[in-house]
Amino acid sequence: MVSESQLFDAIPYIDPHKLIDKNFSLNERSDVYSIGVLLWEISSGKRPFCDVLYDCNLAKKISQGRREEIVSGTPIEYSNLYTKCWNNKQNNRPTIKQVVEKLKEIKENPIFINVNKNLENITKESNKHDDYEGCNVMFQIKIMKHASHELILERLSSLELNLHDKLSNIREKLKKDNDIMNDT
């Protein structure tokens, strides 16, 4: 049985249309919304709305358009991508294919990376940011600015696996939520 806490944990990742209408059928654009939130989470190094109680009030605010703030220093192409993904209107969200293509483009375009810094600088910078809870190690945008091109490519390659795992967990929680709602 899924606890109420576990159900509320998924709120930030759920398509706002589902938060408003329990009969709304999740679809590919719903997954894109979740991916947008995950991309934001990667750039921030923390869970979305980590300073807010995950409850019905948060769900209502999200359904009314509340989103996290863009992380300062995030490359504009990356922040534009995740804000397009979490657009309240499904038809204004990119397709999953477009998200993947844009991530590949960002991955292959080192304009935002300072390739003159070495791994020693990464270590120094990461030690300054050890207060980030739940961060993906050394994948914060602040640290990316000082990373080598190879390290960034490695981290972006692992991104696909992280996104897939998180989406699977979200889908599982939503399925359990639907099962519980249908039983009542």
Automatic annotation (TrEMBL):
A Pfam family recorded for this sequence: PK_Tyr_Ser-Thr
SUPFAM superfamilies linked to this entry: Protein kinase-like (PK-like)
Domain Protein kinase: 1-112
Molecular-function annotations in GO: ATP binding; protein serine/threonine kinase activity
The protein's name: Protein kinase domain-containing protein
InterPro entries registered for this protein in UniProt: Kinase-like_dom_sf, Prot_kinase_dom, Ser-Thr/Tyr_kinase_cat_dom, Ser/Thr_Kinases-Pseudokinases
